[in-house]
Amino acid sequence: MTESLIANDAKKIVEQHLDQLGQPKAHILSSEEKQHKFALIADELKRQDAVLVAHYYCDPEIQELAELTGGCVSDSLEMARFGRDHPATTLVVAGVKFMGETSKILSPNKTVLMPTLEATCSLDLGCPIDEFSTFCDAHPDHTVVVYANTSAAVKARADWVVTSSCAVEIIEHLDSQGEKIIWAPDQHLGRYIQKKTGAEMLLWDGSCIVHEEFRSRGIAKMKALYPDAAVLVHPESPESVIDIADAVGSTSQLIKAAQTLPHKQMIVATDRGIFYKMQQAAPDKELIEAPTAGEGATCRSCAHCPWMAMNELDAILHVLQHKDQQIFVDEALRVRAKLPLDRMLDFTANMKR
Ligand code: SF4
User: Fold this and answer.
1) Has this prediction a pTM greater than 0.85?
2) How far apart are the CA of 305 and the centre of ligand 1, in A?
């Protein structure tokens, strides 16, 4: 069993991108303003035969709007499935760009709009196709498994796409077939899976700027204040944070853990956008934000993804009216990228049976 980390410039690329990122607007809507915007968007969704598909990390009002208008709020796997299976001819994907691309790959005949195409992901940014492809070419005896948080081009280079809700099971399956694996781009999730499955994996060294900020020492201090609290951790977090968790899992799995664990308090180490659905699912639990490295100059995210925060109500209305933030994927690339995505969807459909 081996695990080796592939060095690349992911961190530098992401830092440069963040330096250019504008700050999201801090304006808090009054209840009247919010209802007014909701009504305008709901009308427009109906007129355009569109449905809103939102990720758990979007701001609460976007999640609320998706629920109220018959859309969905979920993790990236369920977003992809929901968009594919919903009869609407237009999908408005509130999330980050790879989620819009995944929707387009699975639903080529639908119009896929996003509030902004500027919303990206440090994992996607840190895994450029040329470098990644060169690396894969150098290891032709490895099966290429990529996380959903990648571009369409990287997916097209892969044998499998996975999300954090099915990654362990898929790697276990591949390992049982004796396959050696290239894993990209999240090194922390890759290391977690490697530890759980014992699979032979080469890890790309990308990371999520949100989860990377969580620190075990800060969480231990918080545990001293809330000794009876459970610690819920997303596996994109550093290993030392995962090691002190009571539950480790994807966003959907963490929401389930908040419901089912007997603890009354939960220290939650993932993007704070999840609190909206987690509190709905576990109304009697007290949810506490896990501390980040933050409060100082090094924190670039402080438990909220700067790209997810770019999804705003005004931008949803604008894109429905103007269709100027639309996802297009080259057809040959789309067909190639669909293969590993379909593999994942088929595998997870069988997991459910
Ligand atoms: S929270 Fe992390 S993994 Fe998710 S979109 Fe933001 S940067 Fe990417």
Assistant:
1) yes
2) 6
